[in-house]
Amino acid sequence: MSDVYDRLADLAKKRGFYWVSYEIYGGLAGFYDFGPVGVLLKRNIVEEWLRTFVYAFDFMVEVETPVINPQVVFKASGHEDHFTDPIVVCTKCGRVYRADHLVKEATGLNVEGASLEEIYRVIVEKNVRCPECGGELSKPENALLLFKTEIGPYKGQLGYLRPELAQGMFVNFKTLLNVARNRLPLGIAQIGRVARNEISPRQGLLRLREFTIMELEFFHDPSESVREVEEYLPYVEGETLNIVTADSRERGVEEPVTVTVRESIDKGIVKNPWLAFWMGVGNKFVRSLGIPPDKTRFFEKLPHERAHYSAQTFDQEVYSTKFGWIEVAGYAYRTDYDLKRHMDYSGVDMFYFKKYEKPVEVVKKRVIVDYKVLAERLGERFQEALKALQGRSQEELYEELSSKGYIEVGDLKIGREFFTLREEKSLVHGEKIVPHVVEPSYGVERLLYVLLEYSYNVVEDRVVLKLPPRLAPFHVAVFPLMAGSREEHKAMVSLARGIAQSLRERGLRVVYDEEGSIGRRYARADEIGIPYAVTVDHQSLQDNTVTIRFRDTRRQVRVGVGELHDTILKYLRDNTMI
Ligand SMILES: Nc1ncnc2c1ncn2[C@@H]1O[C@H](COP(=O)(O)OP(=O)(O)OP(=O)(O)O)[C@@H](O)[C@H]1O
Fold this sequence. Notes:
- This protein is α+β, with helices and mostly antiparallel strands and 578 residues long.
- Among the domains are: 4-83 and 145-238 and 279-290, BirA Bifunctional Protein, domain 2; 354-432, no CATH class; 466-574, Anticodon-binding domain (Rossmann fold, 3-Layer(aba) Sandwich).
- Helices cover 36% and strands 30% of the residues.
- The strands form 8 sheets. The protein has a 9-stranded mixed beta sheet.
- A hairpin with a 5-residue loop joins strand 27 and strand 28.
- Helix 2 runs antiparallel to helix 12 (273-288), helix 2 (36-54) crosses helix 17 and helix 14 (371-378) packs across helix 15.
- It is elongated.
- 36% of the residues are buried.
- Adenosine-5'-triphosphate (ATP) is lined by residues 164, 196, 198, 206-208, 211, 213, 327-330, 441-443, 445-446.
- Adenosine-5'-triphosphate binds next to strand 11, strand 16, strand 21 and helix 17.
């Protein structure tokens, strides 16, 4: 019997979730189309993410920035140099493979992030060969994963399709900080398409060349984070995180420790308190997709496995019966790396002015040099002395003069009489800082896959997709019973159509179906995970009531047509399944 992945792929195509793109031309690896049901499911995942990560907090804003970026953006971000994966080519058949993945499949050894030499050593030692033709493999080399394009049709400038959303938030940081009235912390979220020229995408929805990311960059002052995060910890109070730490991985242990968000901070497991906070939010989010708590974990990356910008990274993973642990999100502590790089490359100031609660009095030490007299006295050695004096700060000169009574320049001793020492007091209102950033980044298609895998059930030989009701592509199915006299039949159809239309007009997504037996119609609704099915029957014509059937239990309740909309809305809000 085929496994859940293949059965899901069949269902997905048959019922309009997703399928390989450009099928009529033989299909294109790494690209998928989403059909009418898949589009709705994706949108619901995005909505749930927005509810959990963005709408819940006053410090969050959302932006939309272009897919195409000028080259300089990815020079500044470091992607042009670092966003690569190691590849090997079969010297016999010419097939190209991602070297670390191939080594892992062939030997079980994890060489992610290892040097090209190290990977090659393993290939030779373990005699790893082309899985297709058995040919010998080339030496590994690094391949750039950015898709290149030209901006402008004739001798245009080089551009790249974004492989992540982050740079759109970094280049706009100053503008958005102004919009947010210069307040930190500030979270900037974005949802959008990205493209990565993946080397050999063979895992369906899990490794695409174009996909959708939901990402947020959280800008904060690291010196205030311990204090500031306190206010928001209650939001993730009940969350316990399963964390496989880098320390334990280095000891060869992959068992997670289970800690609360607060413990992960106090025990120093997560280095940045805000990173820990967002991991708590992420835990909550993944559970809201119906993933059991013990089927998700945070897997800390080892230093050589981390992206070039990150000081600490955790992959949030979900367990798949088909693929084992799958990364659904990356949680990275990007520090001030990106803002500093964009400041360097653009010359634009991206500082945040941190205002003190009260102005602070500072004393500046100044040294005034009497150059005229010094030049007369030193003659031809004046230039040498001038250079040395200008090479030292005012504070250094002040300290040397106060302690020694002269300034030493080689064998010259320049006495106190050439200098006037002053202390100047002033009020300072704040300081310029470069905010630090933590980033959670989710891939929508991977979430959609695991959501389907966990929802997929077979009951009495029929598929029932037990999606959390709120996430279901359609909220409700409406069926008239096709029985009784012609008049009754007509009246039931008319009542059912009216109900379907009125529910639609009030914002619910409805499937109306009058084809086939009621059992077949329930089955079709179950297959695409519609949580509630409303049936109009003979009694409906008498007392204006209908039945609501619950997908997972097949139980039914009867409600008045007048209360139907509000009842379903309440069920959806609470994810009710009785
Ligand atoms: N090729 C892809 N196809 C589908 N989703 C992807 C792909 N690459 C990344 N993602 C999703 O985007 C999220 C954020 O991207 P990130 O850069 O952290 O991934 P990554 O560490 O490069 O992924 P991987 O190690 O699997 O290549 C991932 O957690 C994943 O959910």
